[in-house]
Amino acid sequence: LLRRLGDLSLDVPKAAEYAVEVLAHLVEDKTLPEAFLDSVVALAGPDAGPRIVEGVRGQLKLPLQVTVLKAQAKSVFAEYFVAGDLDEALRRLEELHAGRAGHVVVKALIVSAAERKSRECEMASVLLSAMTKVYGSEHLFEGFIRLLRSVDDLALDTPAMASILTNFIARAIVDDVLPPCFFSLVPGKLVTTGRGKEIQCGVRALLELQGSSRIMNVWGSGAKQTMEELRESVRMLVDEYFVSGDVGEAVGCVRELGAPHYGHHIIKSLIYKAVESGEEQVRKSIVLVKALLAGDVLDHLQVHKGISRALLGLPDLALDVPSARPRLDSLVALAVQEGLLPDTFRSHLEALAQS
């Protein structure tokens, strides 16, 4: 490509600019070593070569589109792993508009899950299956190819990466995310030696020796129960707080959950319980929210999101609690008074709901 850049520029005047973009992404993604740039001048010539090298090095100092996409996708996955809201995760992934870079999101999901525990791997498999509504089969396929290509590098941070990827591929085949003939379509050099060969043999063994139902539980039967346990823990700590009124104990319990991205659900549960119980509990809920923020247990984003979801769920709540609206109005007013919410919060939310 670089050797023919002069001829290409006759038909594609911006060929050098496109070469900069391509090389920057290949180096950023570690498909090419940065040392490759030392040979660009010899390949592209003394006119275009230096400009290309300068352009690539300049881009590597900035957040590239792929880098930004990875960061945004990881943010979606971090919240999904805590909140377990599949529909919300899919909605946010659609908003990323990854386009042809869908494989980047697929790879980021598997890597993010592999850095965590079996529960998150199970959740990632479920999300991966649902992502067929967002990304085409070519994106899913390419995402796994990229994982196979970089498995040795990934194993430096996650030593069990080969066995984790084996489970993900077997599960993806059973879930119809990948075709049964997946490995026959994989470049041979990726699976003839080392970890690639280990993964291929592992997947074939799982598919041949275990039934689909066993592979559906490849992450362990307990991996599917933890989210319900987390919801139950939130319910119990909210109930206990309104009985005891012990703010310090409640803050400690929230901290022990170790789920900061689940904070919006904690706030929403707290508000719903307060609204169901009366004005005194509404005031107590504000006291606890202030303490959670003061202790850096939750941040303002989670608080705003939790209150927003409580307000958006008002029509359903009002069916069971007729006084829900005035109590929620009182809660928002108190939150604004205490500096927990901006003055424009309620009007902004109403405009959002009507849009």
Structure description:
- There is one protein chain.
- The mean pLDDT is 86.
- This protein is globular.
- It is mainly α and 355 residues long.
- The protein has helices at residues 5-11, 15-28, 40-44, 48-60, 65-83, 86-95, 102-114, 118-130, 137-149, 151-157, 161-174, 182-185, 194-209, 212-216, 226-244, 247-257, 263-277, 279-294, 300-312, 314-320, 324-337, 345-354.
**How much of the polypeptide forms β-strand, as a percent range?**
under 5%
Bin the helical content: over 70%
Radius of gyration: 25 Å
Number of helical stretches of at least 4 residues? 22
Mean pLDDT over all positions: 86
Number of distinct beta strands: 0
Termini separation: 48 Å
| Alpha-beta classification | mainly alpha
Uncertain residue ranges: none
Topology as a string of helices (H) and strands (E): HHHHHHHHHHHHHHHHHHHHHH
Question: What form results from the Cα inertia axes?
Answer: globular
Please summarize the sheet with the most strands. Answer: none
